[in-house]
Amino acid sequence: MKNTYGKTEKLKSKIIIEKLFTEGKSVSAYPLRLVYLKTTFEDKVMLQTGVSVSKRNFKLAVDRNRVKRLLREAYRLNKNNHFSTITSQYAFMILYFGKELPTYEFVEKKVNTLFEKFKKAEAQNL
Predict the structure, then answer these.
(1) How is the chain split into domains, by residue range?
(2) What pLDDT, on a 0 to 100 scale, did the predictor assign at position 22?
(3) Minimal CB count within 10 Å: which of 16, 23, 79, 106?
(4) Which tens digits make up the pLDDT trace of 13-70?
(5) Strand partners, 34
(6) Sign of the torsion formed by the C-alpha atoms of 72, 77, 82 and 88
(7) What is the pLDDT of residue 57?
(8) For residues 46 and 8, is the Cβ–Cβ distance under 8 A?
(9) Torsion of CA 52, 41, 113, 3, to 10 degrees
(10) How far is the C-alpha of 86 from the C-alpha of 72, rounded, in Å?
(11) Euclidean distance between CA atoms 116 and 41, whole angstroms
(12) How confident is the model at residue 111, as a pLDDT?
């Protein structure tokens, strides 16, 4: 797995996103929540990921976009460490529901915690 977040890795399918929120499971590490669903994609990618930030907490688009950039960068740099041995395909949505603008270090620490919780939850389901 490369340290990239290309077009094929982005979660864009409205059908999968809708299914993700109705049937998916979630893990949380405040102020982040990871909603995930085991699924199949036409592409050969193992993960498709999207990020979302609440408009209620961040009125300015500039602030929402900043948080989304931080989330995507933390995901891009840390997915190799956590998902290089993954065998199933998953759809992920990372949600930020805090009220303050975070720093990159904070986001990276929480993303790592979130991925660890995901691995534990999936290990229990197997």
Answers:
(1) 7-121
(2) 97
(3) 23
(4) 999 999 999 999 999 999 999 999 999 988 889 999 999 999 999 999 999 999 999 9
(5) 27, 94
(6) positive
(7) 95
(8) no
(9) -90
(10) 19
(11) 24
(12) 96
